[in-house]
């Protein structure tokens, strides 16, 4: 348990302290400039400052801290992937979440309650067997379970026996969980800023000056700064931002929509998702049922919510849990996801010598926040791509070494 | 519910359509380098402005093109692929 939280709980006057200092003036030069003040950028700043002794770091954020996809995702943490490269990477991501509250001395409310993915067809069940065997081989906790076990894990589920969407089994991933997204970002930001990392909110990167294959200057709306190394981790804006440095990524942007209901007493004790219904549900620590995740089926740079997606998500949710039909919705929102052709991220080197990419996180970025931060920091500190990140290079598309993770989620892709 | 105007079937419900992504120039498989071929497969126009893209009206299996603003979602026009050939 974080000691700071215990002290706070025992204090008489509950002192209010700011976790993140006010935005300072920009210095003329930084060893590392991180573009993007979301979870990934802040995690990288934390690992750079704590484990690599690099503290002359600026994190530049166009809006407010962690207000992009870090705030918009549905906080699923899991490692039920299918490629050996993917499983190895995300497995460590889950392990880092297990230790995160201690690491950051900040309660990130990690709740490892397990994820249950439902199979309504034999074909889905067959794919689950492959996924489970790959996972077990790599040492994750994952197994195929029958309908009876599904019923025991989530007794409120409508099994639809004899119906078109009968639940015939499931994939039980007991490592899966959820955490509080704001706490993750603020925990990293607080740690990094305590070690001297500067966090510049409302600082928009307008362009890069490039000389001989190196970024020399970063131009922002608050002035121009020199940079030793640069990392780009700006979620849905990655395509535009890397283009400013002359790097075109194989990314297409789609909005992903989600919504939450009014708070209810705790009843949904696992994460539940259905690939056939493109719907997943999790109960937040406030009691709201978070319902995701519908990708709009065409390219778009808009974060508007749509009625058709609301209907689609509500249909899936009320099919699985019919008693939700009378529950009211509180909010619906969208985030812009930067989708890669193989549904795996693009991390590591770029065509520019001192530009490092942490991009292509599509609909799967939150769970990788700590592990991407850890290895991107190692990459930047050594100026050599960490071995675990090598398969995720942008060059894999030129050599056809794709990491196909399509179908790893219940989001509609 | 949104409506898309199909050049063959007229205005129809958006759920009857499927997006096939931005229009790309077809490379010549005999002469294209591996790198250009990979580029053709994996890169697509992801601009915030107007994109020309393939759509299919699913019930009639009719493929056509649309010009759509990728930020405002405004459809500027839809047209039959024969217009492309005529323009070449």
Entry keywords:
heterodimer, A: 413 residues, alpha/beta, eight-stranded mixed β-sheet, 28% helix, 25% strand, B: alpha+beta, four-stranded antiparallel β-sheet, 17% helix, 40% strand
Description of the molecule:
- The complex is a heterodimer of chains A (413) and B (88).
- Chain A has 413 residues and is of the alpha/beta class.
- Helices cover 28% and strands 25% of the residues of chain A.
- Chain A contains 11 helices and 18 strands.
- In chain A, the strands form 3 sheets. In chain A, strands 1, 2, 8, 9, 10, 11, 17 and 18 form an 8-stranded mixed beta sheet that branches. An 8-stranded mixed beta sheet of chain A has the order 5-6-4-13-14-15-12-16.
- The model of chain A has no long low-confidence stretch (mean pLDDT 94).
- Chain B has a single domain, classed as Folate-binding superfamily (Folate-binding fold, 2-Layer Sandwich), CATH 3.30.2270.10.
- The model of chain B has no long low-confidence stretch (mean pLDDT 94).
- The longest helix of chain B has 9 residues, at 34-42.
- In chain B, the strands form 2 sheets. In chain B, strands 3-4-5-6 form a 4-stranded antiparallel beta sheet, with no helix packed on it.
- The termini of chain B are far apart.
- Helices cover 17% and strands 40% of the residues of chain B.
- Chain B is of the alpha+beta class and 88 residues long.
- Chain B contains 2 helices and 6 strands, in the order E-E-E-H-E-E-E-H.
- Chain B has helices spanning 34-42, 82-87, and strands spanning 3-6, 10-13, 17-22, 50-57, 62-69, 75-79.
- The A-B interface holds A 239-240, 248, 250-253, 297-302, 307-308, 341, 397-400 and B 1-2, 14-15, 18-19, 21-22, 34-35, 38-39, 41-44, 46, 48, 51, 53, 68, 70-73.
């Amino acid at each position: 348990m974080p000691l700071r939280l215990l002290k706070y709980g025992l204090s008489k006057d509950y002192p209010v302290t700011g976790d993140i200092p006010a935005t300072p003036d920009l210095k003329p030069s930084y060893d590392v400039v991180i573009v993007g003040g979301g979870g990934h950028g802040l995690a990288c700043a934390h690992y750079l400052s704590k484990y690599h002794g690099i503290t002359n770091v600026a994190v530049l954020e166009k809006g407010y801290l962690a207000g992009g996809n870090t705030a918009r995702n549905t906080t699923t943490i899991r490692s039920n992937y299918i490629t050996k490269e993917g499983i190895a990477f995300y497995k460590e991501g889950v392990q880092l979440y297990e230790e995160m509250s201690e690491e950051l001395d900040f309660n990130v409310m990690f709740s490892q309650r397990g994820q249950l993915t439902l199979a309504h067809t034999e074909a889905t069940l067959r794919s689950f067997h492959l996924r489970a065997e790959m996972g077990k081989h790599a040492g994750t906790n994952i197994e195929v379970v029958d309908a009876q076990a599904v019923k025991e894990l989530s007794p409120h589920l409508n099994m639809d026996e004899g119906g078109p969407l009968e639940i015939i089994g499931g994939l039980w991933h007991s490592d899966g969980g959820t955490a509080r997204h704001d706490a993750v970002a603020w925990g990293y930001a607080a740690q990094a800023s305590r070690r001297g990392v500067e966090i510049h909110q409302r600082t928009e990167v307008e362009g890069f000056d490039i000389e001989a294959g190196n970024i020399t200057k970063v131009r922002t709306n608050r002035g121009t700064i020199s940079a030793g190394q640069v990392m780009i981790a700006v979620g849905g804006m990655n395509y535009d931002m890397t283009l400013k440095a002359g790097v075109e990524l194989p990314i297409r942007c789609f909005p992903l929509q989600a919504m939450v209901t009014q708070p209810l007493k705790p009843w949904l004790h696992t994460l539940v998702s259905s690939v056939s219904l493109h719907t997943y549900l999790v109960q937040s620590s406030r009691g709201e049922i978070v319902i995701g995740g519908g990708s709009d089926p065409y390219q778009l740079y808009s974060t508007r919510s749509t009625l058709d997606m609301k209907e689609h998500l509500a249909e899936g949710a009320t099919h699985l849990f019919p008693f939700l039909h009378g529950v009211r919705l509180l909010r619906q929102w969208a985030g812009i996801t930067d989708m890669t052709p193989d549904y795996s991220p693009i991390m590591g080197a770029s065509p520019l010598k001192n530009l490092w990419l942490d991009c292509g996180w599509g609909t799967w970025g939150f769970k990788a926040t700590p592990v991407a931060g850890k290895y991107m920091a190692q990459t930047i500190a050594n100026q050599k791509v960490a071995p675990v990140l090598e398969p995720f290079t942008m060059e894999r598309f030129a050599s056809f070494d794709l990491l196909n993770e399509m179908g790893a989620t219940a989001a509609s892709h | 519910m949104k409506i898309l105007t199909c050049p063959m079937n007229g205005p129809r419900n958006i759920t009857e359509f499927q997006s096939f992504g931005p229009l790309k120039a077809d490379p010549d498989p005999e002469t294209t380098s591996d790198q250009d071929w990979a580029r053709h497969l994996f890169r697509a126009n992801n601009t915030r402005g107007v994109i020309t893209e393939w759509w299919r009206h699913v019930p009639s299996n009719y493929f056509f093109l649309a010009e759509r603003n990728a930020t405002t979602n405004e459809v500027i026009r839809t047209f039959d692929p024969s217009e492309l050939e005529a323009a070449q």
